[in-house]
Structure formats: structure tokens, C-alpha cells
Amino acid sequence: MAEPIFITRTVFIDPSEIDESFVRGSGPGGQNVNKVASAVQLRFDLWNSPNIPEPMKRRVAALAGSRMTKEG
User: Fold this and answer.
1) Going by C-beta distance under 8 Å and a sequence separation of 6 or more, which residues neighbour residue 20?
2) How many CB atoms lie within 10 A of CB 45?
3) Which one of 14, 31, 43, 72 counts the least CB within 10 Å of its CB?
4) How far is CA 32 from CA 24, 29, 46, 51, 58, in A?
5) CA dist., res. 45 & res. 70, Å (int)
6) 38 neighbors 24 (Cβ within 8 angstroms)
7) CA dist., res. 14 & res. 21, Å (int)
8) Quick one: three-class SS letters along 1-23?
9) How close are the terminal C-alpha atoms of the chain, in Å?
10) 11, 52 in Cβ contact below 8 A?
């Protein structure tokens, strides 16, 4: 099992809560542009995370803005 990712001394995220996928990166890429999935996209379900306190969830949602989906 992977080690928890600590946000503060008492708040942490279990690595199993993070979904990683590989996508084509935007921007310059030379010969491999639009051919190779060279960027990593991380997704985290903020609202359903049992280890993040509610006040922190609201702050994170405000900071994320449009980068956060309706589902969290």
C-alpha cells in the first residue's frame, strides 16, 4: 500500500483516491506533437474524500474555480 499524501500534519489523502490518466499535452512538442500521451491528468473526488474537513473542502473548491467539475 502506498504512503498517504499529507496536506497538513493531520490532513492527508489516500493515494487510492487519486485517479491518474495520460493525455496528449498541449503546447509545443516537436515531432511528437499530438501523437504521444505525454501529460498526466490527476483527478480527485474532493466532496467524497473522508479525510478532508468540510471547511477545507469549501476553500479548495473556491480556489479550483472552473477547473473543478460539478461532481467535485
Assistant:
1) 40, 41, 42, 43
2) 12
3) 31
4) 10, 6, 34, 40, 40
5) 11
6) yes
7) 17
8) CCCCEECCCCCEECHHHEEEEEE
9) 25
10) yes
Ranges of each domain in the chain: 18-67
- Residue 28 cell numbers, joined: 509545443
pLDDT along the chain (72 residues), means of 10: 90 92 70 66 90 93 88 76
Give pLDDT, residue 47. Answer: 92
C-alpha to C-alpha distance for 20 and 42, rounded to whole angstroms: 5
pLDDT of residue 52: 93
| Matching residue, cell 511528437 | 32
